């Protein structure tokens, strides 16, 4: 959605590229150090994506004003 490479996400989240690749390969509940997951979530948020949970319990994303400003890279 943001068009970021693994390297870009890793750089923006201050984590290693191997960490991003490992997390991307998980096909169930995300695992890893809470602090690492939090850093990645913060990088997405700073890029204009916010994670949300609906009243039905399903999760999704929404774009924030940052994304609308074109500040995605």
Give a quick set of tags describing it.
73 residues; alpha+beta; 434 Repressor (Amino-terminal Domain); two-stranded antiparallel ribbon; 4 helices
Characterise the protein shown here.
This protein is 47% helix and 14% strand. Residues 67-73 have low confidence and may be disordered. The chain is globular, with a radius of gyration of 13 Å. Helix 1 (6-13) crosses helix 2 and helix 1 crosses helix 3. With 73 residues, it is of the alpha+beta class. The protein has helices at residues 6-13, 17-24, 34-47, 65-68, and strands spanning 49-53, 59-63. The protein has a single domain (6-68), classed as 434 Repressor (Amino-terminal Domain), CATH 1.10.260.
Which whole number gives the mean pLDDT? Answer: 83
Topology-level CATH name: 434 Repressor (Amino-terminal Domain)
The helix-and-strand class reads alpha+beta
User: Given the structure, what is the number of helices?
Assistant: 4
What would you say the CATH architecture is?
A: Orthogonal Bundle
Side-by-side strand order of the widest sheet: 1-2
Give a concise summary.
The chain has 73 residues and is of the alpha+beta class. It has helices at 6-13, 17-24, 34-47, 65-68, and strands spanning 49-53, 59-63.
Topology, please?
Layout: H1 6-13, H2 17-24, H3 34-47, E1 49-53, E2 59-63, H4 65-68
Antiparallel strand pairs: 1-2
